[in-house]
Amino acid sequence: MTSYDINVKKLNENATIPTYGSEYAAGADLYACITEPVTFAPGETILIHTGIAMEIPVGYAGLIYARSGLASKKGLAPANKVGVVDADYRGEIMVALHNHSNTSVSIEPNERIAQLVIAPYITGIFHETDELSDTIRGAGGFGSTGTK
């Protein structure tokens, strides 16, 4: 397990610095920086502020994922499925939460709304070509590797 110091700036005095829920948690919880409950109608998406900005190390990205409890209990998950915070971004981290349920649900001030995983990435150097190497799968697409 590798650890890095991550600089986090509070943009709002009520903001909560991300925390890990357990010793081996991969994702740090992000908290809603709101002053009153926010209610989501079924199928509604609302941009929720966290009140923080941070310095992701170069060569890494902050990946914003759903919290399993919030998704399974309330039907709330990031609208874009996975958010990406680039290493050169210094603005406020916000989460577009979408209500996938059939009922209105609310989040409370300082509620945990998503999780941030800091992960390394590879930058591709793309080269146009007329041919690609052959594989057994070839151009088989969706469902092509299953037997049923």
How are the SSEs placed, and which strands pair?
Elements: E1 8-10, E2 19-20, E3 28-31, E4 38-40, E5 45-49, E6 52-54, E7 60-65, H1 68-74, E8 76-78, E9 83-85, E10 94-99, E11 105-107, E12 112-120
Antiparallel strand pairs: 1-6, 2-3, 3-12, 4-11, 5-10, 7-9, 7-12, 8-10
Your description of this structure?
- This protein is mostly beta strands and 148 residues long.
- The chain contains 1 helix and 12 strands; from the N terminus they run βββββββαβββββ.
- The protein has one helix at residues 68-74, and strands spanning 8-10, 19-20, 28-31, 38-40, 45-49, 52-54, 60-65, 76-78, 83-85, 94-99, 105-107, 112-120.
- The strands form 4 sheets. It has a 5-stranded antiparallel β-sheet with strand order 2-3-12-7-9, with no helix packed on it. A 3-stranded antiparallel β-sheet has the order 5-10-8. It has a two-stranded antiparallel sheet with strand order 1-6.
- Strand 2 and strand 3 (28-31) form a beta hairpin.
- The model has no long low-confidence stretch (mean pLDDT 95).
Give the CA-CA distance, first to last residue.
39 Å
Alpha-beta content class = mainly beta
Largest sheet, if any? 5 strands, antiparallel
Strand content: 25-35%
What is the β-strand count? Answer: 12
Strand arrangement within the widest β-sheet reads 2-3-12-7-9
Give the overall pLDDT as a whole number: 95
SSE string: EEEEEEEHEEEEE
What would you call the shape?
Answer: globular
Number of helices: 1
